[in-house]
Amino acid sequence: MLLTLAEAEFFRLRWSATILNETQKAIEKILADKDVADATVRASRARASMEAAFEEAMVVDFVQFLSACEGLPDENDAHVVAAALKTQAAVIVTDNLRDFPEELLRRLNLEARSADAFIADTIALDTGRAVAAVRRMRERIRKPEKTADVLLLIWRQTALPWTS
Predict the structure, then answer these.
(1) In Å, how far are 93, 124, 127, 138 from 130, measured between CA atoms?
(2) In this predicted model, what pLDDT tens digit does every residue of 4-58 receive, in sequence order?
(3) Cα R_g (the chain), whole angstroms
(4) pTM of the model
């Protein structure tokens, strides 16, 4: 859903190689948990597709911003904040909100939002255009095809209750 809304130019995606590594591992785990035999290959393919579709999204040379990230509950998340600072992002979209304290981010002119809240707010910006983008996304789903009602049900059952 995030990729679909970015493709529709509601916002610009920014990520680092480290963020994509974590994303690829998460996709692989999701697929492996569903007993998908080629989970590693599919996760790698998903990452390659993301990189090809959003070539401008890659953030590099953000190490100089790591020192501003001191005080995070999990110092392994500093790369996320540093990449956001490098690109002058306003929002970090994560479902790991507890590791991105509001007071620390506010000091850096950043905000952390859950994917669900961010998507819901993005859709509210221009509902008609967002619905058209989601329709195009749904039409690309082939195996198995999903009706709008089925897609909404999936969102409600997963981590997107506000979106649905």
Answers:
(1) 18, 8, 5, 12
(2) 899 999 999 999 999 999 999 999 998 899 899 999 999 999 999 999 999 999 9
(3) 17
(4) 0.82
Whole-angstrom Cα distance, residue 91 to residue 51?
20
Both tokens of 64, joined, read: 């100089």
- Distance of alpha carbon 155 from its chain centroid, rounded? 15
